[in-house]
User: Which sequence fits this backbone?
């Protein structure tokens, strides 16, 4: 009871904020009786452990200017998905809506939604020991989404009606961070070391920024070592949970589609096409090895420079080697354990320009390693598997992102952000056609009722955002207006989509 009273008394002085998922402490250290060893903390009576509570109350209101592309049932629950460019309703040859923009999702405009699931809170402790200070952090929010796999292995398709283990409605608490540090070591779940927090603009609330790591796979169980080399140079190395997944297609010609539902349980995509998200079926997300990345950062008064290199072993397993990874006629071409080594590199810079302004630029190249790239599909597509020939080849992406934040004064600021990603056409997709399965007849129909093979393979993503933020109480209250633009092109010729979204957000930090 004494600890509870002390805890409640300490809440009055807690003034930290969590911006873009990152907690920030005020610069003034605590003082006076009961004060803890770090800002905004207090000493738990009878112990030498300092404790701090902080968090954010967040409310978002947004609407689609263009087509409806997101089903969010908050606050009643049911599980909404974050906006993903790959979820844009397509138009053109082979698209699910056919060649007309008036079909299906393209005809549904607007859709006012609001939610508070971005609200979060954190518990942080620090305890001195003979080996150094032990620090623990647990950050919890309420944004658990349908089809989310707790950031371990591969996520399921966003259209799934059966969320994987650990998923629930959108008001269910979820652990974002749960880690401990001792000296240079970090063990537990935290943002991947690949994602430099200084490379993501804090005032852009969209979850589909092209280039930076995003919600689908940014948080990872990991073991990380950080070395401070002096002169502002930081070195890091991290062994992390590996994501893996694949896009699978059984078609090879423009005259026939093999869409045989008996090939494997749940082997056909939920949209009726002949493509399979292997990562969401069978044992697609099971891996034997973790991913590894190492990086360097240099901090100076003028800004921040960073670089990363990562490797990982993508692995796709099928519970039945004669069905899941072949068309039922050529089992000799397949294995129930498809593996490939993949790699990724990135570099970024943040410059302090005029006054309190900042410019950011990021380059991210992924050679089949979706673990370090969130832009492809559901963020866990590593390879394309040709279900007729057995050929496997990687998805590669070059992603560029830049943003600029201008601060008019302590109360007003504005931000512009732009990202573009270019995807390769995997060599294993050669021979596939821009046609669709007509359904019962299993014949190829250009612009038919279900998605074509090449309409499921990304070609280019564009995302841009502009925000205006007013802070009536700097560091404690933010009111932001944001406008987002999305453009998606796929490998199917002439098939693409674009959409606008506007949002209004309110954040209260404590």
Assistant:
């Amino acid at each position: 009871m004494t600890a509870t009273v002390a805890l409640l008394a300490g809440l009055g002085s807690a003034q930290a904020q969590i911006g873009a998922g990152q907690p920030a402490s005020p610069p003034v250290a605590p003082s006076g009786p009961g004060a803890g060893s770090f800002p905004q903390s207090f000493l738990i009576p009878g112990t030498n452990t300092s404790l701090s509570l902080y968090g954010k109350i967040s409310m978002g209101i947004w609407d689609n200017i263009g087509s409806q592309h997101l089903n969010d049932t908050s606050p009643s629950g049911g599980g909404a998905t974050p906006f993903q460019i790959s979820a844009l309703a397509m138009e053109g040859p082979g698209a699910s809506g056919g060649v007309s923009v008036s079909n299906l999702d393209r005809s549904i405009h607007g859709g006012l939604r609001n939610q508070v699931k971005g609200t979060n809170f954190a518990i942080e402790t620090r305890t001195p020991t003979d080996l150094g200070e032990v620090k623990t952090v647990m950050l919890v929010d309420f944004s658990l989404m349908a089809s989310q796999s707790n950031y371990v292995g591969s996520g399921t398709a966003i259209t799934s009606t059966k969320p994987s283990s650990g998923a629930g409605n959108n008001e269910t608490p979820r652990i974002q961070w749960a880690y401990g540090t001792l000296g240079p070591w970090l063990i537990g779940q935290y943002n991947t070391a690949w994602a430099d927090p200084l490379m993501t603009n804090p005032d852009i609330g969209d979850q589909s920024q092209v280039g930076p790591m995003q919600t689908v796979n940014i948080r990872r169980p990991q073991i990380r070592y950080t070395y401070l080399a002096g002169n502002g140079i930081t070195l890091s190395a991290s062994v992390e949970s590996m994501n893996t997944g694949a896009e699978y297609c059984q078609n090879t010609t423009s005259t026939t589609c093999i869409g045989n539902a008996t090939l494997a349980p749940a082997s056909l995509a939920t949209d009726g096409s002949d493509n399979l998200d292997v990562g969401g079926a069978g044992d697609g997300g099971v891996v034997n090895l973790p991913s590894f990345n190492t990086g360097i950062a240099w901090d100076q008064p003028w800004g921040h420079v960073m670089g990363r290199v990562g490797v990982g072993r993508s692995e796709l397993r099928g519970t039945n080697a004669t069905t899941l990874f072949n068309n039922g006629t050529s089992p000799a071409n397949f294995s129930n354990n498809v593996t490939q080594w993949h790699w990724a590199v990135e570099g970024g810079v943040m410059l302090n320009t005029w006054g309190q302004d900042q410019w950011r630029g990021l380059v991210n190249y992924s050679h089949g390693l979706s673990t370090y790239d969130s832009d492809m599909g559901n963020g866990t597509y590593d390879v394309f598997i040709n279900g007729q020939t057995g050929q496997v080849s990687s998805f590669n992406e070059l992603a560029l992102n830049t943003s600029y934040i201008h601060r008019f004064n302590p109360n007003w600021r504005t931000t512009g952000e732009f990202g573009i990603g270019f995807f390769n056409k995997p060599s294993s997709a050669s021979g596939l056609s821009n046609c669709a399965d007509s359904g019962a007849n299993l014949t190829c129909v250009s612009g038919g009722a279900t998605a074509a093979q090449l309409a499921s393979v990304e070609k280019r993503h564009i995302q841009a955002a502009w925000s205006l933020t007013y802070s009536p109480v700097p560091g404690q209250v933010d009111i932001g207006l944001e406008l987002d633009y999305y453009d998606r092109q796929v490998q199917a010729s002439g098939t693409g989509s674009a959409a606008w979204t506007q949002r209004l957000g309110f954040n209260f930090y404590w």
User: Anything to note?
Assistant: Residues 436 and 445 are 5 Å apart (CA to CA).
